[in-house]
## 1
Amino acid sequence: MKTMTVIGSTGSIGTQALEVAQKHNISIRGLAALKNTQLLARQAVSFGVEKVCIYDETKKDELENMLSGRNITVVTGMDGLCEIACMDVDIFLNSVVGMVGLRPTFEALNAHHSSDFAVALANKETLVAGGEIIMALAAEKNIPILPVDSEHSAIFQCLRGNDPKQLSKVILTASGGPFFGRSREELSKVTVEQALAHPNWSMGRKITVDSSTLMNKGLEFIEAMRLFNVSPEQIEIVVHRESVIHSAVEYQDHSVIAQLGVPDMKIPIQYALLYPDRMDCDVRPLSLADYGKLTFSRPDLETFDCLRACIKAAKSGGVLPAAVNGANEEAVAAFLDGKIGFLQIGELVSCVCDSFDNSPADSLDTVFAADKAAREFVRSKIADI
């Protein structure tokens, strides 16, 4: 029986991962959530976990009361997340959203010393902001990083059994989000509700907005560089509205291998948790005949400036990806709170990308300092609006 801990257990990825764990007899030892005490308590009791973390420290007493009489330790904050990440298990699933996921991944790698342990990673920011540090540490410890994002899982699957040295390029597919084909004038009138209406995927609020600005694809661009050790020039983004081809790779002989499936996150989640095995998954089979046709086009880098900023940051390297990510997190939060318009997200991200004082990403402290500086910059700009 495999054992696992999950941070971000009450979110979309976390809840689906627990369904996979229940179906395939994976034992859960620790769980963590941001602030949803009721669901976290139900999960903890259902899976008989040893320890839970509620990141919002003000919720500790509430959670402890819900778990009263049960032998479940309650921890809080970043220290609590890292405690869950460092528990002795086979798999650590990081499915939190945002920079909060970087340090637990780092601590999990530091705490384990065996290839029998794996990190299943659904937290983009770990590799966007601290990718050089994390991938070097994983290689040193001989610990696999198993991608959970559908696109990176697809690339991972397409590379399996082939020599990565023969890889020519990665083809990263994008749904295009709800505003594919819109002009900047049309985007200037976008509401929060419209930005949260994704055509293919059911995700959390922040990630859904990122998909609508194409920031999500920009983050995935940087993530792919780190995961698969490719240059920015080896990554091609293709808008594929149907979200059936989850990504592809091209080899030196110009042969292209793609991974296809219905747009359902349970497939990549289960592949990461059961790797290298493939077993029955609770999703409907793909029928290409039912789809009839699949379409492809190039992304509009002029209209969707978040994507353009991410590609520039990827090429520049250093702490600039961390700064761009931090700027986006701050700007999206402001948009969701009604403080700025939709287009201002990209404008703020681009402003940070174009003006930030870049430096090497040689430590977590340096990365976090860049993240903090970018956030402060965005907050100051928003305050002047």
## 2
Amino acid sequence: MIKPNFFIIGAPKCGTTSLAAWLAEHPQIYMCPGKEPHFFNRDGAYWIETLAKYESLFAYANSQHLAVGEASTRYLYSRVAVPQIIEYNPDAKFIVCIRNPIDMVLSLHSEMVWRGQETVRDFERAWQLQAERKSGRHIPLTIRRDPERVQYGAYCRLGEQLARLYTLIVRERVLVLVLEDLAKDPAEEYRKTLGFLNVDESFQTEFAVWNQRKAVRWPLMSLVLSYLNQLRWHLGFRMRLNIYDKVQRAINKADAEQTRISPDLRNELVAYFSDDIHLLEHLLGRDFSYWLTPK
């Protein structure tokens, strides 16, 4: 058994799907088949229940694979995932992808609607509901096991989450990638990642973009499909068939448009995230002040 030795731990809607797909093509890297196993985040919804089932995901890793990894984007937000990973493999490395949280929060809400895990299609209304949802009201049926999924503000405060990570692990074992850097120069960011994982840096890939913003025609269909998918899981049918995505893309997919928000709401988001963005600047030694400038 070859244990995973690196983990892409977040954040959602920050390029992790593309990065995981690019890494999976490298002959010296073995990526867990099927993204997001979510085994270590026991303080939220998880897919894999036992260590034996989790380790079976890496059964085909062999001696040619110098880096063995998985990508579960809720690990960064979770307070228990990283400590459990360190206990499981003290030598583990961590990759964190970040972006402007003001863009991230809009994209995350859109993804939740697509996944049938959000019943409020209007982002501004969903943002306003966070306090009530914190008290247990208006929680979509499909995320009852993990109601914090609709705490969009907390999920996108990446500075706080990265600062917590740095209290658990030395910085040399953490690689932070910024989505706009991945988009601008994917080859350089890929090479940087390969160097971090100590594999051949000369390997190249096509850098296809995965998991772009999607929209739904009928949110109720997304909700029903998500519920049926979870029901299948609870009844013991644990094989990940990706039926949900197949049906969604075939029937329920609509053209995605950039979410438009009012100036007042944007000012509210800037006020909410400004201290967290400054924390990211401090942690990474970069200037992200332009993230606070209206586009």
## 3
Amino acid sequence: MRTQVGIIGAGPAGLMLSHLLHRHGIDSVVLESRSREYVEHRLRAGVLEQGSVDLLRDTGLGARLDREGMRHEGIELRFDGESHRVPMTELTGRAITVYGQQEVVKDMIAARVAAGGTILFEAPADRLSGLDSAPVIHFRHQGRDEELHCDFVVGCDGYHGISRPTVPDGVLTTYERTYPFAWLGVLAAAPPAVEELIYAHHERGFALYSMRSPQISRLYLQVPADEDIADWPDERIWAELRTRLETVPNWTLNEGPVLEKSITPLRSLVVEPMQWQRLYLAGDAVHIVPPTGAKGMNLALADVALLGDAFAAWYADGSTDLLDGYSRTALRRVWRAQQFSWWMTSMLHRLNADDPYEAKLQSATLRYVTTSPAYATSLAENYVGLPEV
């Protein structure tokens, strides 16, 4: 097989890049190890920054988003038995939209199929070769070993993919932090009891009240990193959510059947640089953030927006400036998101349950955020997404 840009991974990054390249008249092939059904239904993030929403709309992918997405103009912080709203749109003129990542993926796949794009599902990539001048992606599809020859390879295959490990030892530098807790997440058939997300700081740990639709709630609890999901029957989950969220007067959590539950460890990771020879890396393949700041999918989309322009310039007139500067430009946004996600995580989670001094500092920080216009604006502009970094 032959194409111009070979893309590994059919998540938001890989699919959006393929869509952007198509709009520039550049051919691509997307290889995905999982089935189409799997990638269209795996639960991931659900908060889109203003810039991500604008990108989807501007590239013709915003029709269903505009019908079904839920625009939020603020978030709520709960601590010390009080509730405080951060009015993001009032402070920044921008907003977020709640729209599940799996819905974004469905829209992208539909667009690529309608345009005649090539996405090969259940086609795991085995290795890469020729990255210095004539890249080849070696993969397996329908029981056969295949080769995809291309001008460039873009690895959007996540932390466990083959793209990043292909780079020789000593080229990449990894910056990493592992947190001593995880998120227990549940998807519940319960209408949200709020119109905007609630971030709750509680002596028993952090809790987040989110949603995926007017009928489906998405809720999270801070738990120890080594917690076993089997120790959390539905009754215990709802009891703990009530304890951490029902801390203000005249407010009650809506409950319903739990559709899915899982435990996800929290970590921060950045790998530099994000390119080597004719291999370019994007999304979770090179950076992971704690979900507290809602940045994962947004960073992935920002990465490939840069790559789309860079490849367009190269194919138009051979210009290499944008390709050469991709890693440097992308990492500015990545590190800004890393700092914000770390700050939100540190402010809201119980880092050491036996340290009352720490808890007092967190309460003082939260009170300052909710009473200082400058501090609230800083939180808001980072949360909705900075236009440029």
## 4
Amino acid sequence: MQVDNSDADVFIKKAIKEGKLVRGLRIVQKDGKVFIPVTERVEFRGAVPCFTDFQSRYKSSINRVISENIHSGEEKPKWQRIGEAIIFSRNYGGLETIARNLVESGMVKQVYVNHGKIDGKIRKPTLLLVAGEAGDTIYRENGVIFLTNPANLMMSKGNIVERGLPSMGDFRPVRVLDMFSGIGYFSLPMARLNSVKVVQCLDINGEALDYLSKSARINGFQEKIRCKNLDCRLFKSKEKFDLVIMGNFKSKDYLASGLGHVSENGRIILHHLELSENRYESIMQIMKTGRMLGYNLIPMDSHVVKSYSPHVWHMSSLFRVTWH
């Protein structure tokens, strides 16, 4: 079916939900229109049935293209895919050829390579476009559609399981506060829950919040998601939240601000970095800080998300909060 470019993302979401999208064929863009292969008609305002010769989505594979073009003696490239974009960890011999082939084959739209560190408090990636046209990409994860711009906004696929908040168990909050929301890694999956009525999102990166708002509309969560562009320590609210999410490695430094927004018997999740020898002691340290601030923190879960660097671990810790 043919739709306007501006309606394509919403149409694709509807086609996927109805099980009508043909995933093995490549979507075609031409003259401001998008041609989307479907098994049968999808009712959508402005969509027009048409017949087009769609090419196979994948004539080869990403790994095959890489292996056929990598220079002899080079180590196997590390890369991650975010929607229609691929990001290589560093430059490799043959990367320009690999990138051009990936884009020309239609497997991806953008190929980037890291050429610097994550920049500043807003954690802006330092990427160089190798092939394709820079711009937005759609990324699907944990049943949620994310709209993002890989060149400007940080996104790590390595945390996909954690962003589904596996430690929550049967706890179903109504009001959620995400203190470092970014593009909605945690906010949007939480908004999927039927129990959740409000997700208050805070971030100092206004561009990230713009994309979060757009993703909320794409997913139909716009009535639940509220965004504020500010330092989370400056956020003031009379309402309390059943769940406070602190998805920042410096979350322990912001603990006082987070606890001030948790309802009685609510939950708080901290993401923090710990040395190997401090992984277990850190929980006691967080509880001690909570007591000094006037709260009892009862540990519900603490686990390693992944290795961050040699002898340093990314931890996720969940506490139930009661007041003195």
